[in-house]
Write a structure and sequence with these properties.
- Eight copies of one chain form a homooctamer.
- Chain A is an alpha/beta fold and 252 residues long.
- Chain A is 42% helix and 17% strand.
- In chain A, helix 6 packs across helix 11.
- At the D-F interface, helix 7 of D face helix 3 of F.
Chain lengths: 252, 252, 252, 252, 252, 252, 252, 252
């Protein structure tokens, strides 16, 4: 968008040389151009979609990760870094002593906000203990967004009585995240038991033609139970975020 | 599960030969065994997950489709057949004159229930006119489940001003289904604009390495916008169902 | 293998010019060479692996199919043609009036043998009605091989109570074939319920990233339940054949 | 974007209650909202990227195709429909007698504009006669955009002398589109001969592990010659469009 | 399932306020809910499918592996950990001095049960020496389940006389596991020689387009010999387990 | 290459204004430029690689196919069209009454040359009758190139005695083409029996995860027998051509 | 090509025994044969396609890389090594003290040429900071080829206002390289905003079904915006080279 | 095969109780059973296919590799280990001081046989220096089998004059191995230049969608030049072996 033209138009309106209607017509034809500094950008994001930028740690140097995290924390009072490294945590921890390192999901977080009342309704169901690190990324994300999360573990499809014994809890959830690797069958089973929407979260647990989680993802995509949607393999953050937004939680 | 053992246990309790506590302990150890007829099964489903069985028409003969649809309609007062054939519709239509054929999504439906108040909050956004048949399957599903759906079309990423002019409407949605084929970029853009959860619905529109919609599905799975989950290619029913369940709608 | 050399050796032995031991040593070094005519070949097969050649109909002309089937039937008193065409059946039916056409699996068969006692122990479990044609190919194969087959249908994972009500029957099986398309989750659930070996039989039922049954096949390959092995997509014949061989059935 | 807020702001400026600077700051923070009718949209596109909307015919009904094409032609004086059907052409032809049907690429076009001077510099090189339909889609696109196109055919890598005899012509091109199926080797060879950028255009010509053109596309993506970029399989339109934009041509 | 409702129902029956028949009808409609502790769960599994939980070592920490293994061993008198690490073995070995580490398949096991009579009939055939670690995982599994296993090695298809010299042994088997990497052809050859069911076990031996064992798995899936089913790449445990269940072995 | 510059150089040499050495230096720096007409091109090909251009029929119209075939036949006295249509044959047959249509491989050929002595040494081995059409394309190609071909059929790996009975014939071949679909195991077995090079020719026979012949192709690529190379799926022409070139045959 | 025959022909012409026309006819029939030494080869390349050979570092030893780089630098005064190692740089740096190591793209370069006027018109747009190393390889390549490059970063599709604020700069570009990983949506958005050709450059940033950049590449291939072509994943060099050649830049 | 039955038959013949004809008939019906020791097995292989067993080093421990190599060398006087490790070489070297380690292809070899006259006719052409290690595995294999090999390097398709200058040498070859990674185009170009059969040898050189050599392999499979067959990625041994067998070389 042509910022100078926008300014020109606004000056014409200010000078009475162009009507508000004419200006409106013209401005809608051009693309907007907010030339924002870094901090402004974060504000805008919070306002638009209710969540400060989360730091994706996988392809960043520890130094960059720590620096970006510190700026966000400084501004928002809360920060989450996913798929990070312990080295990045140590750098960040020097600046933010209250920071926490979660070994399972390899996540860094810190939160100095007042604790609001938590919003209930998010359940996270994990098929096996190997799926726990991914499940915990989902739990952490939804919790930081203000949700009370019920984590139910070790309820794989090869022993369904373990799942059915938790049916009451599942029935109370307003959204259920189902975490599974290998054949990825659990979301179909849960989807057949509950009225709430199910977010299927495939993990890379498995070997051979599990293809790093692709087999689980495909199975979930083809679920014969309605009301199941799927996020990327090991994307606990994405599942947790969507679950939180379904129950109406936002970062602030 | 051993039905005869369950009956035995219940008789023992009735006869006072076994306490309720002992019976409870034993019954929880065995898998349940409802030997239901067809109609009972539907009731159970409605109670469990809030939606009578939807008929998946793709691999059924027209005659089977029409018969199954008639039985469900007879029982529930509402029926939806997805990915069906006109021939199946004609057979069904002879029995149910009020039945409707939707050419785009190739769906059959009928609904003789009283119209309840519709639940607002579902928006469906389609990238191009070629994506409309799939979008309409989503709209139809959510509508039959009791939702008021706002359909926004022809707002592809190569002309974003068309999308931004609808931003107000998007902002009001409690869940947004985003339908796109080819590069599947639209859910990322919408996900960056709204607070509501986004259900990405890839379509098979495209050729060459669109791979029948796989390219779009993969793009959606890797969305850099949080709060995006994905359903199978052309699965308008699944997206509509999940959207309805997110806003709290059930079949009845 | 050098047939002439074998004859030479045998003549040397017959003539007393070579000892049986020397002949044995030499003959074991060369590969055997049965120059059999067509009928002999079938005998050999029946003796080796217990089943006359089954005709794979998919890439044969109707005329070739009918002719080959007639020769096998003439010789064995029983014949099975899988994945055939109605046209091939009609040609074959002219020669063999007692021949049967099974519409679902598109199979031709005829059997003029005395009915032996059937061997019990084979159960076939199908997830949905769309999976029935493939399930029936398995049932037909095992039945022709002399098994009594228990077919259990419409017990998909999204409504598990339907499955558990049949648990008694499953518990009596010595081998269970589990037929499913879409997400292919059912074998894992059944594998967790029974002691018998489970043969998972994926079907091409589904669309989008079901990838013509590949998603179901991958899920079954990654089953978290032990004792599950898998055959090719829609290969009801292979599953039925293996199940029959597990309970000790052979063609005759 | 919030249109009503934009109007509010403009009225505040018109009324002197807000300065142009303040208005500029606020307006840059919100997303624009042109609520355009169909015709306006086309104008906007021509202005933004220099080409009216081209109609992608593959997933549209003949009736829709003809109608959309007629509206664009009416407004722009030129229209191109790619991957269409003869039926769509016949419907369009009734309204636009000067319309042309190109059998090879299955394209519809019409152009009533004055002929401007053509811009030289685009060469299209096709490996075999089977690649010609795709090559012609590229030629047609670039020609309608105002380019003079030199088409060189039947110069596959298995007989390179055929290519080298056209080296002079290639040397004069400012951009070369190279069209090939099967092993897709030709762009590498051409890329080693010319200074101009090479657009590689894979075709679906081939069988077996040509995988519908994927083998050619992959080969082109891995070209050892620099200056080669690739478009989708059979995407003659995309290649022609980019070539035209490289030599500076726009639709008008 | 609603446990409290079950208790309510049972109390109603105990109090004579509900008949056993009515209770049976209601209870079959709800899913069971055994709230079992860890040890109980193991018992249940042994009873249901005849094998205590085997520990999958690949995605567990050495500490977790050793702890879980110790609890199972303590309870069952036998334990098997597959795809583990030497570090996990050392931790486990401190608690269980009689534990064994198998370098090839990287398995941990211990067995303090009385030796029952072994069940004969399982043969394991390995194509090459590189396939031995996977073959040994199958042998170990079946042996711990009470089978006498005949291991036949180095009989690849490129030298078939090696295989035919073992034909007598193969003929005696009631089930044959065939282990092969690379082109995975051996199961087809063995399937043509024996009446017993064949479990094909692909290995990741190979390079290039062996694709980590996928080529072998696909070949086995497409075997022209009937009676062949397939398990996941390198899944010696699964093959051994199924073979044992075919000959009727269970853990105890 | 710059033809005019070449002519200039040659004139300078003819005029004694440039030495042969200088000319040689310059000419080697530029790419050659034979501007040949169609007939000349064929001559050049015959001289370079010993075979006139074979017509690939799959993506040509019947009319184009017939015309191109007629021109080649007119010039060379022999022509082969692969993967063609009966319609193309009929058009060609009107011009060339001696033309032959081979239904299996869908090939057109004609040959009016004197019959030379055939070169022995090519064997073609086909696994099943379904593989015969592809095998016959190989036989036809090698025969037209002047080879005497020994076709051995129906010797699949699931009944190896059928193969070993033909071992003498295989031992006499100087090159063996092995044709197989499904699991593609036969080339490995043959490669272990003969000294001659083996050309593996995968076919698209199969279903499910045969993936249109990809499974067979992958298996052949991973053959544990040395001396095996592979051509594209169903590429009987390529295999026959290479076999003929190995025994030293050329078109003339 | 037959060098000796070329010399023979040239001598015949020099000796007046063959006319220039006859010689021309014959020379066009044979393939050229420049037997060049290493340095000559580079010259030839510069003349033909305007760029000295760039060293691809990925599969070379540090020693070989440094040596080859030194020879090119010695001859051309400029050298670029892509995807190299710091070890290779250190070896090269000993010989060429002015050499530079770029950590991000892992590139080595040196340039002792006089600085010419830079050619404007190349813009490089990167979606996220993780894409910067690849973007910088593109910038470096185009810069060394004589272009002035405008790098615009951190303008991903999930926050489009960041992109639109740079619209003026994009509008001035004659070619735009768009760098993105994950869902690869940015090129479609930019392609809808600018008239210039867009080169889409996918990166391997992502996890799960980003498949190492394949998801981004596929999305870009299917862009609904015209004028977009694509290079290999992480191929910053190729994108930079093509962009430079589009604006008319050559190495010298 | 039933060895005891064979002995029985032979004794019957020796005793005159069965005629040679009857014995021949029976023996052809059973599979042979050479129960050979290790050394005998090698002899058999040499006789059958002309090459002692080559050791595939990739999935063997250094100790096993060295031991097996030593036994073969001891027996045959020549040994080749492919894709091995330096550690294995060092162990082998202690026993066989004349052993050689080839760093490029990571091969071990030793040869104490008298040098026979080498068989000419094998050419190996490598596209780039990165392809040399694989090319050298091919050269080494063919050389050890008794061939004189002509290695031509650095003649990639992006600079074809380098290839054409070697055309004389190529024309003299009786078989040409063409080694290339990336786009794998070179075999098509060479196949268009020579009469000899071409063995295409794809390498894993490349990145991104080279997919570890799959792109090159696919391109070679789809070569438009006839007479091209393909071996596995990086399989220099297989290509060298087949080339040697084409020119009639055997190990001895």
């Amino acid at each position: 968008m042509n910022n100078s033209r926008m300014n020109e138009v606004l000056n014409l309106v200010a000078d009475g040389k162009m009507s508000a209607e004419e200006a409106s017509s013209e401005l809608t034809l051009i693309t907007p151009a907010p030339d924002l500094d870094f901090a402004t950008l974060d504000h805008s994001r919070s306002e638009r979609i209710g969540f400060p930028e989360v730091v994706y740690g996988l392809s960043k140097t520890p130094k960059d990760t720590a620096e970006i995290a510190a700026r966000i924390y400084d501004h928002s009072g809360v920060v989450l870094v996913t798929k990070s490294s312990e080295e990045a945590f140590e750098l960040f921890n020097k600046q933010v002593p209250e920071a926490v390192w979660e070994e399972g999901p390899r996540a860094i977080w810190a939160d100095r906000r007042d604790n609001p009342d938590l919003i209930p309704g998010v359940a996270v169901v994990a098929a096996g203990t190997s799926d726990l690190p991914v499940a915990r990324e989902a739990v952490l994300t939804a919790t930081l967004m203000g949700c009370e999360v019920n984590l139910i573990t070790d309820v794989g499809v090869a022993g369904l009585h373990r799942l059915s014994s938790r049916a009451d809890e599942l029935g109370e959830a307003r959204v259920v995240i189902v975490v599974a690797g290998m054949e990825g069958a659990l979301p179909s089973v849960v989807g057949g038991l509950v009225k709430a929407p199910v977010i299927a979260l495939p993990t890379s647990v498995g070997y051979g033609v599990s293809l790093g989680g692709v087999a689980a993802l495909l199975a979930m995509m083809n679920s014969c139970a309605p009301g199941v949607s799927v996020v990327n393999i090991d994307n606990g953050f994405g599942a947790g975020y969507q679950a939180a937004s379904i129950v109406g939680a936002t970062w602030r």
